[in-house]
Here is the input.
Amino acid sequence: MPSGASSASAARPQSQTAIRRALDLKGKTRLLLALPLALIVLLLGLWAYKAFVGDQTFRDLDTILSKARREYEVGSYAQAKKTVRQAIKFEDDHKIFNAYKSRYLLGQIQYAQGDYDDAEANLERAYDRIKAVNPGSLELAMVAVPLGRARAALKDFASAEGPLKEAYDIRTNKLKAGDLLIADSLSGLADLNLRRGKLQDALEQLKEALQITIDKDGENSLAAAQARNNLGQAFQLSGDYPMAEKLYKQALESRRHAGQAAAPLVTDSLQCLGTLYSATGRRKEALACYKEGLEIGRTIFDKSDPRYAALQARYGEMLSGSR
Here is the structure.
């Protein structure tokens, strides 16, 4: 065999080996390049899944809190408290440690039930959580008002004034004049003034709050009924019984018109009227109010509800002739 042919034959295996090595290297390079891309895709997928699950978790929490809020707004405090405790357990189970809405709502319910110490504790906890991450915000103002009310109820007037004024300043700076949240702040400041004996200041603030509420929410809304009840109490404390009676009756009519869901609020209006009639010597009318309130209360209140106990006490006093 010629020497040239022998050299060509020997070169072919070498060149084929080189080609195979080159192809193998190219494949490994492609694999190495593909690995980071696959990892990025995997991480993005995990992030998207976690975000979806996280969003769903917060949606589920909001659903529970919305139910509790509706129950609270119509005066079903015992049921609202049960629901909001479900929300708190949900937060604990899902490790949502920085949430504040559950504590905020629980504090409002406790305040409405007269449990001012626990109300202050829960509202202060919610307030501190928001202030740490979002100071000067509308969310902070939302919690500051009931916190101030709870402190005022505990007669800690100096500590109450700070959050109430803070909320009012935030809202008047961030919102348009006549916003319902400004009415809420005015009502909170008026509550403080009533408790420390500044009746005239409280009356002016409550009149403004009522007008804002009527303009924004309607003449016969439940919010307007609450604003009338608040103003009626201020007029009663000032000795203007005819004006207080007028406002109480208007609030009662709106609450009756709202239907069965507002039944707890009807009992509230009946108790206010009963107290007014009792103070003005109208025993028969006071008894009628307390009796109707008790009849409604038996069907809607938990036996431990302080509103039911208060109605029973008032009715008993009137029957015994002690008032």
Notes: The first helix runs from residue 3 to 73. The CA atoms of residues 113 and 306 lie 6 Å apart.
